[in-house]
Amino acid sequence: MMRRVLIGNIAVSEAVKLANVDVISAYPITPQTIIVEKLAEMVEKGELNAKYIRVDSEHSALAAVYGASASGSRVFTATSSHGLLYMYEMLWWTANSRLPVVMAVVTRSIGPPWNIHTDHQDALTIRDSGWIIGFAENVQEAFDMTIMAYKISEDKRVLLPSIVALDGFILSHTAEPVDLPTTSEIDGFLPPRDPSPFKVEPGTEFAVGNLGPDEVTMELRWLIWRAMYRSKYVIEDVDKGYNKILGRNYSHGLVERYRVEDAKYLIVSMGSWSGDAKDAVDMLRDEGYEVGLARIRYVRPFPSEIIRDISSDVKAVLVIDRAVSMGSGGILYSDILRSIDRRTPVKNVIAGIGGVDVNQDHFKMIIEEFIDEFEKDEYHNWNDTYWFMPWMR
Amino acid sequence: MSMMDLARSKWSGVYPGNPACSGCPHNIGLKILGKVLGENSVLVVPAGCTSIIAGVWPKEGLGFPLLHVPFASAAAVASGIRASMDKSGRDGTVVVWSGDGGAADIGFATLSGAAVRNEDILVIVSDNEAYMNTGIQASGTTTWKALTTTSPIKGKTEERKDLALIMLMHRIPYAATASVAYPIDLAKKIEKAMEIRGFKFIHLHSPCPPGWRFDAGNTVEIAKLAVETGAWILWEFDRGRFSISPQSRKYVDKKNRRPLEEYLKAQGRFKNLSDNDIRYIEAKLDEAWTYILNLEKTLSKS
User: In Å, what is the CA distance from A322 to each residue of A76, A269, A302, A319, B110?
Assistant: First the structure.
């Protein structure tokens, strides 16, 4: 193991290099671009023995790595925002073909207006497609989750593609110290891909994607559903195994539990701002509030069981969303509602859309208000999704 | 490559009784493709008629190792397969078999990208001059004035694009036109393309009985008429050298061509053409011939 200071985008490209990827294809988009620029440089310098395909669009980027993955290669692509939306059709095609493609999504708002700053709308827009979606809190996690994504996706119990989401600029362009495993440490953890059960190559009379009878189509979706469910256990296992080779004595798995043991109020968050939310929790704990935080690390598969467990003794839950389903509510919120005891009141706050900065003081304000409302019995108003826009107060 | 060679080659990749329409030109093209390629190949098929011809699982209409892919992705997927095969040292031919929609329209950016990268793949566009699989809607290669279900009364109001010439201008090593009525010419072109490392493009003229409204027994006849009237020109560009193919050579002299009316009037899709319309189409074809002859003159490096 060694320690280097890296920005998130470079950390992801170092992880891809360690994973010994065969084929890379991507189309540039801010704030993702640095990842694939770095990978292109590694390939040209001969540091990474991979094929780099410079394509005409994100749709073609995912199509190219889809083809390479179908032929048995380990592949990588990366994108953000509009690039991800342009891939949309291929995203479903990839998951429905059960190919272990790994992609980094550097989260960015969707236009108009043009805005290159982070929110979670892009990555969450594909939550129903059959991709495993992990959200990093910091640069170290972006690195770790990228390597783990190959192990998880290529597991025969899973065989589904993975997205590692990292917040644009906040992680992608910010330098932090990162612990990097050595090649030999990773080689033992992540052996070359075994492409079974299928590989499209010359000499086989084998087709993938033929017209399917309706019942077969439904059965195939059901198999993905089951694989998604199984992947919960695989993710927990892989996380433990990975942390062990790095000599760490912790493993967060699907959800990081932060000061939740005796919490009476539970905050749910995801992504880089969870660090600020934890600071707010610490400040409130110092003031005597019994508050804890559940940080969603993998939003697909959604860790419903863990959330149900953590929330079983709390008085109320606050879900802070950085993406919204228009006409419905926060996206995490609806997943949380589905997971917990129906009698537990839940407040939903939408914040940080379009990259609006939300700092520890803002989180503290949001949480205090939530607890205050609950204690004053005002939580019947929580049916309305609350948009946190302090400049409009 | 002779007719006997083609007949002797047992493997064709096309199974009898597959779900193609009667008289389907794709089946003819695929059969020739399979016989020349052999089994050491992979076929990438974007959405289109061939998605159906390949059959409903668990039945198989085609015997090629085959990857079905979304409309606008075929050339990129083929590039990925090629990269994967190169990385692991496997040989074999990667072929995109596409319709006009998948190549000239919705899939054009992807196709252009792969051509610019000079990917070592063979792209064959079996062009039936409309979106036939969705029910005969006008495409970028549909002839001006042709009746389709999206140009049902007045006919198509726009000109067609010449996809093969557009691909030639990508500075690729090999581009050619072909016709399902000339199997030996097509077989030779596929054979030559397989010898070349880099991007190869073949634009195959494929008359569609239900789409063009002619009897299903006349597919080859109509395809032949297209060449004999000069409406479809067979040519080949092979690593710097442009040449009109032997089957079209004699139609350089307009006197040798059969009257254009014979081709147009054999098809229901042209039933609304006035004499003036026919003269206009003929003038456009004369322009196309001039263009092709000039290309041959310019690109005659041997």
Answer: 26, 9, 16, 10, 34
d(Cα A159, Cα A234) in Å, to the nearest integer? 11
DSSP A125: T
**What residue spans define the domains of chain A?**
2-245, 255-392
- Give me B181's structure tokens: 């009525």
- Smallest Cβ–Cβ distance between B40 and the set A56, A60, A203 belongs to A203
Substitution target from B77, B93, B94, B199 for chain A, most A beta carbons within 10 A: B77
Query: What domains lie within chain B, and their CATH numbers?
Result: 3-298 (3.40.50.970)
Cβ neighbours of B276 (radius 10 Å): 8
CB of B258 within 8 Å of any CB in chain A?
no
- Distance between CA A337 and CA A344 in Å, rounded? 9
Across the interface, of A53, A54, A201, the residue whose CB is closest to B90 is: A201
Subunit contact A63:B83, Cβ cutoff 8 A:
no
At residue A280 the predicted structure's pLDDT band, cuts being 50, 70 and 90, is very high
Residues of chain B with pLDDT under 70: 301-302
For residue A67, the chain B residues in CB contact (below 8 A) are: 44, 67, 69, 76-84
Closest listed residue to residue B229, CA positions, set B275, B264, B194, B204 = B264
| pLDDT surpassing 70 at residue A269 | yes
Q: Give yes or no on whether A2-245 and A255-392 have one common fold.
A: yes
The CATH architecture assigned to A255-392 reads 3-Layer(aba) Sandwich (3.40)
Chain A nearest-CA residue for B76:
A64
Instruction: Mutate one of A211, A216, A218, A219 to test the B interface: name it (highest B CB count within 10 A).
Output: A211
Q: Which of residues 59-118 of B touch A (CB under 8 A)?
A: 60, 62-70, 72-88, 90-93, 109-110, 112-113, 116-117
Give tens-digit pLDDT for A153-183. Answer: 999 999 999 999 999 999 999 999 999 999 9
pLDDT recorded at residue B302:
53
Residue to mutate among B10, B15, B33, B84, with most A CBs inside 10 A, is B84
Helix (H, G, I), strand (E, B) or coil at A330: strand
Q: Which superfamily is assigned to A2-245 in CATH?
A: Thiamin diphosphate (ThDP)-binding fold, Pyr/PP domains (3.40.50.970)
Q: How many residues does chain B have?
A: 302
Asked if residue B44 lies in contact with residue B97, where contact means CB atoms within 8 angstroms, the answer is yes
Q: What share of chain A is helix, strand, coil (3-state, %, to 5)?
A: 40, 20, 35
pLDDT mean across residues, chain A: 97
> What whole-number percentage of chain B has pLDDT above 90?
93
Q: Which of B75, B84, B110 sits opposite A71 (nearest CB)?
A: B84
A167-224 pLDDT, tens digit per residue, is 999 999 999 999 999 999 998 999 999 999 999 999 887 899 999 999 999 999 999 9
Quick one: pLDDT at residue B83?
A: 98
Contacts of A60 in chain B (CB under 8 A): 73, 75-76, 109-110, 113
CA distance A52 to chain B (A): 8
